[in-house]
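Hello Y.,

Per our agreement to keep a running log of every chain we model this quarter, I'm adding this entry. I've kept the format consistent with earlier entries: sequence first, then predicted structure.
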Amino acid sequence: MTLLTTNWSTVWLMTGLGIGTVFCILVLLILVLQIFTAVAPKTTHTIKAGAVAVKEKIEEDEIARNNEQAAIATAIYLYLQSQHDEESGMLTIQHTDYTAWHSELNQHL
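Predicted structure for the entry above:
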């Protein structure tokens, strides 16, 4: 029955080491981020210039997309307008009683 005996000093030591490791890593991460912000140059001007360039690109793409849609709509309209011819309205089908298909399908007659 050695399962019921627990070495509590070892349990608390392992718990303390685990929590201590997590907090040490968090402190190191905070220090590294502070060093990066101190070393990195202030790039607000380049970010604003980049944002303006992106906005202009989006506007150009939207104008191009609108032009493409207008060209497609015009092409479809012109195609459909030239597709209709004047029809006489008279049927020109001539019906015959005997065809080659009739003899093939009705060989038993």
